[in-house]
Amino acid sequence: MQIVDKQIGVGTLEITEKERSYVLDVLTNNRLSYGPxxxxxxxxxxxxxxxxxxxxxxxxxxxxxxAIACLKEMDNWHDGDEILVPALTFVxxxxxxxxxxxxxxxxxxxxxxxxxxxxxxxRRITKRTRAIMPVHLFGLIADMDPIVKIAHQHKxxxxxxSCETIGVSYRGKKAGSFGDISCYSTYVAHFIVTGIGGLAxxxxxxxxxxLRSLANHGRDSIYMSIDDDKDLDGLTxxxxxxxxxRFVRRGYSFRATEMxxxxxxxxxxxxxxxxxxxxxxxSRLSEILKPxxxxxxxxxxxxxxxxxxxxxxxxxxxxxxxxxxxxxxHHIETWNIESRDMMPLINQPVxxxxxIQQEEYPVASWINRCGFYIGCHQxxxxxxxxxxxxxxREFFKKTSLL
Length: 402
Description:
Blueprint: H1 17-29, H2 36-48, E1 53-57, H3 60-75, E2 82-86, H4 91-99, E3 103-107, E4 129-132, H5 144-153, E5 157-161, E6 169-170, E7 173-174, E8 181-185, E9 198-202, H6 205-215, H7 234-243, H8 258-269, H9 271-289, E10 296-297, E11 313-317, H10 325-334, E12 340-341, H11 362-370, E13 371-374, H12 382-398
Parallel strand pairs: 2-3, 2-4, 4-5, 5-8
Antiparallel strand pairs: 1-9, 6-7, 8-9, 10-11, 11-13, 12-13
Helix pairs in contact: 1-8, 2-8, 3-4, 3-6, 9-12
């Protein structure tokens, strides 16, 4: 078997003529600041998740940041208050909590879906807990019914980190439709790719107004776009002029441009094809890798409750396997199959100051040691999937397990 020339990556970028034509339209109209494509992208993205308001920003991390800032302002949270976050997630989830003077309190994850374990939440709640931030990892929505119930019982806000899960459902409801504010990413390798980009989504007009202001330096909501002083007259025009350079809160420069929005509009129009292709490829990988399931935990979830979007394909080496994750990963990387560790968080050097006790999070600790993921994106074809299977087979032959 020969090594493929082109790396089989964890993500992909596919720009079609549709996206190119929309970007060309932006350039032809000489409009890069917030405009018609941004508005269309926000409306369509929010509607796809059964929500009313979308705010397009420059990253999913920025979306999370303004979500926390919005609720901190509205609910008068104080520095030192706490937000519950999963013990397994990308570092941005915990970083944004710390950046706002709050404390991330970690909750262990489930060993099957890898999302926040609802059964571990209540013992982490204290008198300073203000919100729960479930993260929908790898394309699978967390078990939201019990999480919502706990949040209501304890009067806690919910911020959904849905950066890795776009457009899929849990009990008939869309990802991001359970929380006060939900956040998504459109960065490279995600479901929808705009280069840079993210969205904060909500059903509450007051939250939407504050979120947009926060993303625009804290600007007065009367003037968020160069179109907001057009076609006005009389007292209304005078009021906009008076307030259009007025700032009412400490905000951020989190804006994206019409270029990214135009790409996003094109990607949204073919999202269903992207999703189906990822789901098909993941299903094929599960079939191809099934002979190795004595040693590898492949993705599993309750298909009667959850839909899996498969932003990537997670694999965990089982505890009794006679080899290490490092040995397997080194083998597949040598054969030009890209991998990533499966979202280690609590063992990151940057959090050493928090003195996290790893033994308190046995599932996350196991996944940190043994979990990784590979790609299953829409630009992987049958020959690529079969190649992945053959590379895994070579490893098990080499280790005398086949």
